[in-house]
Amino acid sequence: MIKEVKNLLLEKRALDLLSRCFVYPNEPQKLIEKITLFSQNKACQSYGSFINSQLVGILILENLQSEHIIQAIAIDPKLERQNIASSLLKAARSEYPADTFIAETDQESLGFYQKSGFTVFSLGEKYPGVLRFLCTLNE
Predict the structure, then answer these.
(1) Cβ contact 49:84 at 8 Å
(2) pLDDT tens, residue by residue, 40-58
(3) Which pTM does this prediction carry?
(4) Rg of the chain in Å (alpha carbons)
(5) Contact residues for 85 (Cβ-Cβ < 8 A; gap 6+)
(6) Where are the domains of the chain?
(7) Among 64, 89, 72, residue whose Cα is nearest residue 38
(8) In terms of CATH architecture, what is 2-137?
(9) What is the mean pLDDT of residues 11-25?
């Protein structure tokens, strides 16, 4: 089941999932500050995927008129590759079918975006030793 979870973003389960997207080693307060900004931003929506009433995936979307920036997709690592991220993206796309979706990602998540139909542009080594990619989906 997928539903809006903006009110759950600062709960432990959501923070545990989102900590995989926003890495702040030894600085857990920075993660809380970042997620607080999303939870307070009226332009942000948060979709959650639940299995047996447990939150197993989150997609945070920032809506900017006809463009929607995927700020995070976080899936329980034990449940990856089970179409949870695809289901979250599908739910977001169903609300904005004619709009553009944008994400910035790393090499590890690139395959998901390519498989989902995104066009990929290399941003190069944005951070030392880390290649980044801009992914866009237009329909």
Answers:
(1) yes
(2) 999 999 999 999 999 999 9
(3) 0.91
(4) 14
(5) 57, 59, 73, 75, 112
(6) 2-137
(7) 72
(8) 3-Layer(aba) Sandwich (3.40)
(9) 87
C-beta of residue 35 within 8 angstroms of C-beta of residue 83: no
Give the CA distances from residue 31 to residues 9, 17, 65, in Å, rounded to whole numbers and listed in that order.
Answer: 11, 11, 27
- Which strands form 2-4's sheet, in the order they lie side by side? 2-4, 44-51, 54-64, 67-75, 100-106, 130-137, 119-127
DSSP E strands, the chain: 2-4, 44-51, 54-64, 67-75, 100-106, 119-127, 130-137
Residue 25 pLDDT level (bands cut at 50, 70, 90): low
Mean pLDDT of the chain: 91
Residue 118, token pair as written in the block: 């995104």
Tokens of 70: 């995927």
